[in-house]
Amino acid sequence: MSDPAPVPARPAIVRDPGAMTLTEPAPDTQSYTCPRCQDDVVEAWYGPCSSCRAQLRADQGGEAREIVQEDYVPKMNVTPNAVATKD
Fold first, then answer.
1. Domain layout of the chain by residue ranges
2. Which residue, of 15, 35, 48, 62, has the greatest Cβ tally within 10 A?
3. pTM of the model
């Protein structure tokens, strides 16, 4: 029996050189156009500007509430095994 053919190595993953990693410190500020209101803003992270975020919180935000979950009751659509129920 012969040895199987070698598996070719995967190519290296090329990452965006401008991408930020989680180990880098947060940027101070950057200027960009708000994707929601199209205003020019200066913020640390890309996304809706401060005024848009405040408006979204007011419109979409809600009070936290406790969710009560009922106890799990399994369905009984399978009959027990005859061997398991044998005395």
1. 30-57
2. 48
3. 0.47
